[in-house]
Amino acid sequence: MTDLLTIDYLRDYLLVGAALFALGMLGFLSRRNLIVMFLSAEMMLQGTALSLVALSRYHGNWNGQIFTIVILTVAASEAAIALALIMVLYNRRSSLDITLWRELREEAAPDVVPAIEEAAAAELIDATAGPETYPKLTPAGLEPEHPIQPWTERRR
Amino acid sequence: MTTGSLLPTLIIVLGAIGVYLLLPHRLGRAKPRSVHIAGAALTALGVLGFLFSIMEPPSTPTPDAHFYIAGAFFYVFSASALGSAVMTIVSRNPIHSALWFAGVILSSAGLFLLAGAQFLAAGTVIVYAGAIVVMFLFVIMLAQMEGRAMYDRASRSPGTAVFTCFLILWSLVYCLGSLATRPTSEPVEATHQPPLIAGQNFAEHYRLAEGSSTKAVVDRVYRPTSAAQTAEGLEKPDVAGLGEALYTDHLLTVELAGSLLFAALIAAIVIANPKRSLRTDEPELAESDA
């Protein structure tokens, strides 16, 4: 019996893998939520794994599947460490926003992003109520004394 | 560039525009509903075009029912994988993102099954959908109890990111379009020509050539313990064959993977444990030290 996985079929698998990889990269580059960024990284790994499995079948040989098992291991380790890091970062800033951690870059690196970010911060208050806006309440009364020591930087 | 590569370019550009319209606004402004509808329509066009015109249906001499059913399932799983992938990166709510990501995982597990990797399909569903996605959901619910945040409704330079990623996709599609379907060199003694349709046929083809560098590489790679078929040409059962290859040819890999998991376990515990301050004037710390 001849194998169904001919080179045309292999190309289709590789194309789906490439599309998953590109979409994962897009999510990693453009989203600001740390968790969505890590999900996108896992999606890139998934695209690679799909290509490897198809190549393994195409070559009639288990090496590609063994590569994929290693990718699974690495993905599990990455998820564990990434979630631990996300929890630590969240405890420091009470937010999952990646742009709060921009000062981790080099000192001498050109500061390109803040112009956009300042504009974003200035324009974030929505004047028009759309499906993605929430009402803003004006603060009233005295601000209570903050019970948390500032050096811990934790909210709760 | 020929006219043959014009259609893939057009389809990828359509998909890029659609995904750009669906992504959150750069400054977090609300996008009107018509933009969302236009983006969704363009993205759906792009995905369908990708499935049905970039991927040419494979050709066999005598297509039978098995072939058509496998092809139909391939298109269903690919469409749901790509659609879920787009929804993962454009969802404003990270919980929805995680659930759509589970959809990507399940669809690609179906594709694994179609490619004859039953063990990996089950493993992927268990490890990803069962463990990783649930862990992500747990962290999201722990960290974002107050609902959708401002930074989920804004994206970082979406135009540049869309351009870069779809340029990469276009280059990959362009390279894959010129995959060699013929061997690049003739063997010295080609007594019989196997039907050159799969990788193993190519390997057999190259093995016929004595003393070439390709033959040395092929002989090294195609070890009998790693091959998917026995010497008599019978298919090995999936898990047994995978286990044989894993524990004979790749024993060191298993050890390394175990060490990696162990190191990751220790790292996660060390990182996530709430550290106490190193100040010595804390009464409770001095107490616990004593």
Overview in brief:
The complex is a heterodimer of chains A (156) and B (290). Chain A has 4 helices and no strands.
Features:
heterodimer, A: 156 residues, mainly alpha, Helix Hairpins, 4 helices, elongated, B: 290 residues, 66% helix, 0% strand, disordered C terminus
Task: Set down the secondary structure blueprint.
The complex is a heterodimer of chains A (156) and B (290).
Chain A: H1 7-30, H2 34-59, H3 63-93, H4 113-123
Helix pairs in contact in A: 1-2, 2-3
Chain B: H1 6-22, H2 33-54, H3 65-90, H4 94-114, H5 118-143, H6 158-177, H7 199-207, H8 213-221, H9 238-248, H10 251-272, H11 283-289
Helix pairs in contact in B: 1-2, 1-6, 2-3, 3-4, 4-5
- What's the helical proportion of residues of chain A? 55-70%
Q: Quick one: biggest sheet of chain A?
A: none
* Helix/strand structural class of chain B: mainly alpha
Helix run count of chain B: 11
Give the beta-strand count of chain A.
Answer: 0
Please name the CATH topology of chain A: Helix Hairpins
Largest beta-sheet characterization of chain B: none
Hey, roughly how much beta strand do the residues of chain A contain? under 5%
Tell me the structural class of chain A.
Answer: mainly alpha
Cα end-to-end separation of chain B: 77 Å
Q: Would you list the SSEs of chain B in sequence order as H and E?
A: HHHHHHHHHHH
* Shape estimate of chain A: elongated
Gross geometry of chain B: globular
What is the CATH domain class of chain A? Answer: Mainly Alpha
